[in-house]
Design a protein that fits this description.
33% helix; 6-stranded parallel sheet; Rossmann fold
Amino acid sequence: MKVLIVYAHPEPQSLNGALRDFAIGRLQQAGHEVRVSDLYAMQWKATVDANDSTEPVRGARFDVSAESRRAFENGTQSADIALEQGKLRWADAVILQFPLWWFSMPAILKGWVERVYACGFAYGVGEHSDARWGDRYGEGSLAGKRAMLMVTAGGWESHYGARGINGPIDDLLFPIQHGILYYPGFDVLPPFVVYRTSRIDEARYARIRDALGQRLDTLATTPPIAFRPQNGGDYEIPALTLKADVAPGQAGFAAHVKGSRDERADRDAEHNRL
């Protein structure tokens, strides 16, 4: 497989840095090709603006979506955006690796998504009609590729449990996994999450490394999260709400995942071994 790691941590000697290096070595030893976008080392520009195109803005104001589509279609995107899009096209699997900061990804990684996911590339794709609302949520330009999050969190695992004060980890990661990854078509694997990162000794790190190695070894075969595809018949179009007979009595994020309770229980059991 061809694997792209998009890495967002400013310190190479951090836990994230060690896990990144381990992941690269493990994947390469298994015969995979690996590329890394180290956003801090690249000094990635996180803000969307008119400089993302080599053409001047058309019209009296800067319309982000319209200018993004025009630059993508005309081949006038800035070189850094085009390069990252090329990496996404190249990859069979993408790993987003980051620390959970303020309940989300670091700003530099969000900025990577906002600039690289250009209109016409990752969104605004496909037919939009009363029968179909575009190629997204299971379809799109990145369909057929796999993706996984590697996340570190300072809090205890219980803080991110079903009744934990921080909220369930599946809910916190839903906007990233469902919105950023599944939206343009990725098959999204269950995340690899490391908790209580300030309390890791050599023995625990060895267990974490071994568990990560097992996940990387099965990157091509692990069943993805069973998100419901937008155009698969579960949703009313164009309202894009679940049909009355789909997940009756359920609401919120979990309703958009088939068998989510079983998947969460399996993952909780795995983390409890770390």
